[in-house]
Amino acid sequence: MTEKEYDKIPGTIVFDADKSREGYHLNQFCISLRLQKNRDTFNENEEAYLDAYPMSKEQREAVLKREWNLLLELGGNIYYTSKLAANDGINFQNLAGRMTGMGVDSYREMMLKGGRSIEGNRDKSEWGED
Amino acid sequence: MAKIMAGVGCSHVPAIGVAMDTGITHEEYWAPVFEGFKKSREWMKKQNPDVIFLVYNDHCTAFDARCIPTFALGCGAEFQPADEGWGPRPVPVVKNHQKMASHIAQSLVLNEFDITIMNEMEVDHGLTVPLSVMFGDIKQNGEWPALVIPLCVNVVQYPAPTGNRCYKLGKAIRRAIESYEEDLNVVIFGTGGMSHQLQYKRAGLINSDWDKRFLDLMTEDPVGASQITHLEYLRETGSEGIEMVMWLIMRGALNENVTEVHRHYHVPASNTAVGHIILENNA
Questions:
Q1: A59 touches B at CB < 8 Å
Q2: Which fold, B8-281?
Q3: Share of chain B above pLDDT 90, in %
Q4: Which CATH architecture has domain A13-90?
Q5: Which element (helix H / strand E) includes B149?
Q6: Nearest to B231 among A5, A10, A121 (CB)
Q7: A64 touching B (Cβ < 8 Å)
Q8: Residue B124 Cα distances to B13, B16, B32, B55, angstroms
Q9: Does chain B have fewer CB atoms within 10 Å around its N or its C terminus?
Q10: Cα torsion at B235, A80, B116, B167 (round to 10°)?
Q11: H and E: helices and strands count for chain A
């Protein structure tokens, strides 16, 4: 695949047409949890609820295991996956605490101190990545 | 004739709405966020707009992945606050100036901005949080003090419209509004931002220097701001910082020369840098 200009940004997945195509059924599942009656049905039997959404095995597993970063790698978008998180009682900040691997408390602390600096976080080379 | 008197730039962090809805705005964490809107609320009272033209984005609430319009104009009579997964916000239903909205829709299309017309649409925190911070607490059974025409912009799936396109759309919106024959005082809101990244391993990114420069550009050099590339937004302000293109729609609808009457900047609200500016059109 040809490289995209934003591929060099570290720790970031840009939700573009390729991701959107890959994640369509996953995202449609997530957004269904916006409504209380669907949240109730899902929470009663997650596996049965997921049968209605023809997502890949990997995506389905990632949902069941709540692998938040993997969900994004597989085409999920944060505004969709956050609906699954909200169903579990996890808000945006606590979700970010998990995705960064920092944990909820140190993430909150970092935000109180002004957030993650842009310095050292512009290019994958600064993270020792390609 | 209707007239755009001023523009408001404002973040729309969901947690700000939650803080207001649960009555914790006086707490140490939130007090500095709301302090910066005190003056804005007084200004809103004095300004007393008849109509707010409110540019925002939907966060996969009213729009799911089935349909992703780049620009969608709310033309229905009213808009219910949506359940985004934690219950709808306890705020009043948002009422449109329906006749003016359809006039704007027509005018935009004839001016070659082919927007989508929404006759049914729920609205999420992207629209209701800016109203709440600018008007203060309003009970669910009360009424918003102004009618609201929502313009919803896709900033979720890349690419969002370019800053340049947004700036030009702002100009077309102004032509549309100011060709409407009723004498109405209109204020335009551009919402979202500032720097923030909600997702993946770089979540929590904040770039205050960049944000402050952007606020300067809003006042002094909007054409310069309209040329900021998507790559720059994504890299320098985080994957969700690209919401700031919506401020350019607001800015495009104002005179080139404006007076900055208020500015507020605070980090953090949840994952986000809160930015706010009020710009009045010079007479």
A1: no
A2: Protocatechuate 4,5-dioxygenase; Chain B (3.40.830)
A3: 98
A4: Orthogonal Bundle (1.10)
A5: strand B147-153
A6: A5
A7: no
A8: 11, 13, 24, 12
A9: C
A10: -20
A11: 8, 0
State residue B72 phi and psi, 5-degree precision: -125, 125
Check CB contact of A92 with chain B, cutoff 8 Å. Answer: yes
Which residues share a beta bridge with B272?
A: B269
Query: In this model, does residue A94 exceed pLDDT 80?
Result: yes
Rounded to the nearest angstrom, the minimum Cα separation between A79 and chain B is 6
In chain B, where the domains are located: 8-281
Cis peptide before B100 (omega within 30 of 0): no
Q: Is the pTM of this model over 0.90?
A: yes
- Chain B residues whose CB is inside 8 A of the A69 CB are 200-201
Single out the residue of B160, B162, B159, B186 nearest to residue B104, CA to CA: B186
**Burial (Cβ within 10 Å: 0-12, 13-18, ≥19) of residue B265:** middle
pLDDT reported for residue B158: 98
Sheet holding B258-269, edge to edge: B116-118, B71-74, B147-153, B51-56, B185-191, B3-10, B272-281, B258-269
Nearest by CB: A79 against B59, B204, B208: B59
